Amino acid sequence: FKDWAVHGWVDMRTALAVSSDEYFYTIGGGYGGQRGLGINRIDEYARSFGLATSTGIALRGEVSGIIPTPAWKESVFGADDPWRIGDTYHTVIGQYGFQVTPIQAVRFISAIANGGKLLTPQLLSQAGKDGVAVPYIDVGIPDADLQVVREGMRLAVVSPRKDATVKSLNIGGIHIAAKTGTAQTGARNESMNSWSVGFWPAENPRYAYATVLEKAPAGTLSGAAPAMLPFFQWLIAYKPEYVN
User: Fold this and answer.
1) Which residues touch 13 (CB under 8 Å, ≥6 apart)?
2) pLDDT value at position 208?
3) Is residue 126 pLDDT above 80, yes or no?
4) What is the pLDDT of residues 139-190, one digit of tens each?
5) 196 closest CA partner among 139, 157, 243
6) How far apart are the first and last CA of the chain?
7) Could you read off the pLDDT of 84-100 as tens digits, one per residue?
8) Which residues pair with 211 in a beta bridge?
9) CA–CA separation, 89 vs 5, rounded Å?
10) Strand-pair category, 177-185 with 117-119
């Protein structure tokens, strides 16, 4: 189970910034003397952040998604193909059978940005309705832990390392914190869905986004994060009230 690049020794912040697969393989499934979370706790934490569950938004047809588990694998592939440690490794980085929607992703990243409040998405008839009470669930994670994630996502944008994944959004006039993701698709991984999630301003978050570009050829380098660049440039130029 190799990484996508050689990163050297990394901590949590840097692992987020460079998307170190091996770091999160170890956190999720363990390796050597390092004990991992295990698939049951991964499933528990993912669901506590609203992944693979409906958000409650007032729109018809919302789907829930999938978090792969031993029970899910048995139902899909049968009892002759049991759960393996490699399945845990792939699941913890959002691969394998992991399926979420963009609105789940932006809700998840909003909870990281706002200190642990899992919001129920609301549809407004017009912008600028500050003070609207939004229902939420507390995810139960200390803000000090979420701060590590926020710092890692900011580092993904501003780090001078060549393997930092969101340097395309390191632009003047706005402080963005972000993360990328690549979901391999197709029978032979011939395609990929490019994801990016983030929030701004990084130091005092008010807004969050989730973007996915579907079914690009495998290995495509220009993905969802660079695709957001024109939007942020437009925001800085024409809607500065939404920058800070």
Assistant:
1) 148, 151, 152, 155
2) 97
3) no
4) 999 999 999 999 999 999 999 999 999 999 999 999 999 999 988 888 888 9
5) 157
6) 41
7) 999 999 999 999 999 99
8) 196
9) 17
10) unpaired
Tell me the mean pLDDT in the region 58-65: 92
Cβ atoms within 10 Å, residue 229: 12
Closest alpha carbon to 177 in 194, 200, 195: 200
Neighbour count for residue 135 (Cβ, 10 Å): 11
State mean pLDDT over 30-42. Answer: 96
- DSSP lists the bridge partners of residue 198 as 178, 209
* Residues in contact with 92: Cβ distance below 8 Å, sequence separation at least 6, in sequence order: 24, 25, 27, 28, 29, 36, 37, 42
Name residue 84's amino acid: R
Three-state secondary structure readout of the chain: CCCCCCCCCCCHHHHHHHCCHHHHHHHHHCECCECCCCHHHHHHHHHHCCCCCCCCCCCCCCCCCECCCHHHHHHHHCCCCCCCHHHHHHHHCCCCCCECCHHHHHHHHHHHHCCCEEECCCCCCCCCCCCCCCCEEECCCCHHHHHHHHHHHHHHHHCCCCCCCCHHHCCCCCCCEEEEEEEEECCCCCEEEEEEEEEECCCCCCEEEEEEEEEEECCCCCCHHHHHHHHHHHHHHHCHHHCC
Looking at the DSSP assignment, which residues form a beta bridge with residue 217? 191
